[in-house]
Amino acid sequence: MTLAMTKPALAPFDAVVFDMDGTLLDTEMVFKEIVYDISAGLGFEMTERVHLSMVGSSHEATGKLLVEAYGVSFPYAIFDAQCRALMKERLAETVPVKSGVHEMLAELKARNIPAAVATSSRSPHALGHLGTAGLLGMFETIVTRDDVTNPKPHPEPYLTAARRIRVRPEHCLAIEDSHSGVRAAHAAGMQTIMVPDLVRPSDEIALLCAAVMESLHHLREAAFRP
């Protein structure tokens, strides 16, 4: 399906706050393979519905939904530890980035527009993967799960990023790939763009977005090209 912008133009912005996995880093498919493999190894059959509900979720939310899906016998602590270990192993040397990331970040740097990250991932995961991808030095601040009390879909991660870069939330552009992230950015009062990865926008989610775009290339053209 080809996506078009849900609205024809973007309002001016003074900073950009990015989600990480699925938005900056092309890691969601790697994680999907790991989730299916580890679930099977533990004796549980992962499904597309359950997996998609995990995309963009925090550690706490993921644990809750897996127990709801499979019952209290689901060994979430073991599942989580094995997922983290295998993810670290598979991404130890190379972390792929999404199409358009380098161009978008270069454009922001050339225009002196600050960039930040707001992710539901823990700090070691976030800093390690951004470092391996060669992106760590591109952001003024990186807000991880360890920096907030309330993870997405609560707006705290985005509000924290805005506070750290000293830009009012309504003057920030937020870029997300998940429903949970879109809800968080919108609740923070940011102009929210969804660039879908594995999860498509529902009608409800599309209405929370200033635009839904195919890629960061499309976003860069919309934001900076006359």
Structure description:
The chain is an alpha/beta fold. The chain has two domains: 15-26 and 96-224, Rossmann fold (3-Layer(aba) Sandwich), CATH 3.40.50; 28-90. The protein has helices spanning 28-41, 48-54, 59-70, 76-90, 101-110, 123-132, 156-165, 179-187, 203-207, 216-224, and strands at residues 15-18, 115-118, 141-143, 172-176, 191-194, 211-212. Helix 1 packs across helix 4 and helix 5 (101-110) packs parallel to helix 10. The longest helix is centred in the middle third of the chain and has 15 residues, at 76-90. The chain starts with 14 loop residues before the first strand and ends with a helix.
Shape: globular
Largest sheet: 6 strands, parallel
Q: How many H/I helices?
A: 10
Reading the helices and strands in chain order gives EHHHHHEHEHEHEHEH
CA gyration radius, whole angstroms:
17 Å
- Say how many strands there are: 6
Residue share in helices?
A: 40-55%
> How many domains make up the coordinates?
2
CATH topology of the largest domain: Rossmann fold
Structural class: alpha/beta
Could you list the spans in which at least 5 consecutive residues all have pLDDT below 50?
Answer: none
Mean pLDDT, all residues: 92
Corresponding CATH architecture of the largest domain? 3-Layer(aba) Sandwich
Distance between the termini: 26 Å
Q: In the CATH hierarchy, what is the class of the largest domain?
A: Alpha Beta
- The CATH superfamily name of the largest domain is HAD superfamily/HAD-like
State the assembly state of the protein chains.
single chain
Q: Strand order, biggest sheet?
A: 3-2-1-4-5-6
Q: How much β-strand is present in the residues?
A: 5-15%
